[in-house]
Specification:
The protein has about 450 residues and is α/β, with parallel strands linked by helices. About 35% of the residues lie in helices and about 15% in strands.
Length: about 450
């Protein structure tokens, strides 16, 4: 039996394929490969930078579906199914809106696949597979499983190894799809499994793709203690409240942490309160002054993540957020337009207020383009939200800003390694900002191309 794993692209730039130069290993597919019986041949095709050989013989195709890649994932599935090949789909989007995903595949997996994958494979081999497999969340994710990384070789991924210590987050931010997926629970792998996985590969630069690696501080400390002897460097995602625990921070730094993606979300206390971002409530009231001072003290290079388009936002406040990010010389920053993921509290609220654009399904609508507003904001037009968010990305990633932010002695210039990392990755992310803006979802040319005026339209 042959299994083909597919990582879908987002879409296309006008008439040409968008190639993601900042692409990282698709870790979930490496885990699926590890779960697959040894006598099954496994191949991976990454739609972000290579053509998919639809006519290459295969028995089963597995496609991971995220909301941003759903349209393209359905196109890929259609190509295989038209050739008589069965398709299994799973991923975040399959949990958020399973009825939709089920229409585009032969087998649907809802939830993390550890405890159903081998059963599904065996059912498929015997010709009696189910249409849907509901996977219970394992209390210890990826237990005794090391992702297969041989399938990543030769793909041109960035030289950083992706792995996981935890899944989910116990917080309940209103816009967060992960909170819905994991039902606001947080799950930790056995530390010994993580250490074994790190030792199984050669790289010393790691990215823990956890939603919040410090959500369980006791477990995080256990991990950090175990990492210290390995002399690695790593990055991950964390929450602002980690700074309240001095022991946690000391262990984090000693274990080789270079920096974290941190959800600042907004510099407005009112916006923070409205989105239920409890970890930021106190900090935002003082413009994160103490927290930023501590991050510099610990030498952490920060990727500050902001969401814009909240009911308390204005064009002026969004621009002030960009000023704040440049002034504080964050290593990286994201200015993400508030996106209503299906079946999140935010989505249901905006739906009840008739404020969803693109028929409430921006991820499938032929007029929607990447980084465009898909909601009606309260204090600006959708076009103003789109333009202002892009203006922030453009300003923060300008050559002048990159030079200005580099000169931060406590973080970006703390060591030669950190400075080199800053200089290597900032131009890469700058390039991606401009390449991704306005991407069409999907690659199919079957849909009628819109003229420039139609492409720029956000109010549907």
């Amino acid at each position: 039996m042959k299994l083909t794993l597919i990582k879908p692209n987002i879409g296309r730039r006008e008439h040409s394929l968008y190639v993601d130069e900042g692409r990282m290993e698709p870790l979930p597919l490496g885990i699926l490969a590890a779960l697959t019986p040894n006598d099954v041949e496994v191949v991976l095709y990454d739609d972000r930078m290579e053509s998919i050989p639809y006519d290459e013989p295969t028995d089963l195709v597995a496609i991971t579906v995220e909301t941003f890649t759903a349209r393209r994932a359905y196109e890929i599935s259609s190509e295989y199914r038209s050739r008589g090949v069965k398709v299994v789909m799973g991923g975040m989007h399959a949990m958020l809106i399973p009825q939709e995903v089920a229409e585009h595949c032969d087998i649907l997996i809802v939830g993390d696949a550890e405890n159903v994958w081998e059963t599904m494979i065996n059912d498929f081999r015997s010709g009696c597979h189910k249409k849907r497999y509901d996977a219970e969340q394992p209390p210890y994710p990826q237990k005794n499983i090391i992702a297969r990384r041989d399938i990543f070789e030769g793909k041109g991924y960035l030289p950083i190894t992706l792995l996981q210590f935890t899944r989910g987050c116990s917080h309940k931010c209103s816009f967060c799809a992960s909170s819905v997926y994991f039902k606001a629970h947080h799950y930790c792998r056995p530390v010994e499994d993580v250490i074994r996985e790190i030792k199984s590969q050669k790289r010393k630069l790691l990215f823990f793709v956890d939603d919040n690696i410090v959500c369980n501080r006791k477990k995080a400390k256990e991990l950090f203690r175990a990492l210290i002897p390995l002399k690695i460097r790593w990055v991950s995602q964390g929450s602002m409240d980690m700074l309240q625990d001095k022991e946690l921070m000391e262990l984090m730094v000693k274990s080789g942490c270079l920096g974290l993606v941190i959800g600042f979300e907004s510099i407005s206390p009112d916006c923070i309160s409205a989105m239920n971002k409890l970890t930021n409530t106190r900090a935002s009231a003082d413009m994160y002054r103490s927290e930023i001072k501590q991050l510099r003290k610990w030498g952490l290079q920060t990727w500050a993540a902001f969401t814009v388009g909240h009911d308390g936002d204005t064009v002026e406040s969004i621009r002030a957020t960009c000023d704040f990010a440049i002034r504080n010389k964050f290593t990286f920053a994201a200015f993400n337009i508030l996106m209503p993921y299906p079946n999140t509290p935010l989505y249901e609220k905006l739906k009840s207020e008739n404020r969803l654009l693109y028929d409430g399904k921006w991820w499938l609508h032929e007029d929607y383009r990447f980084n465009y507003a898909s909601i009606v904001p309260k204090n600006m037009t959708p076009d103003e939200l789109t333009e202002t968010a892009f203006e922030c990305r453009r300003r923060f990633n300008s050559i002048g800003s990159i030079i200005k932010r580099a000169i931060e002695p406590h973080t970006n210039m703390r060591t030669p390694y950190r400075f080199i990392t800053y200089l290597l990755y900032n131009p890469l992310f700058r390039k991606e900002v401009f390449k991704k803006q306005g991407l069409h979802f999907g690659l199919s040319d079957n849909n009628k191309e819109k003229n420039d005026e139609g492409n720029n339209k956000t109010d549907t």
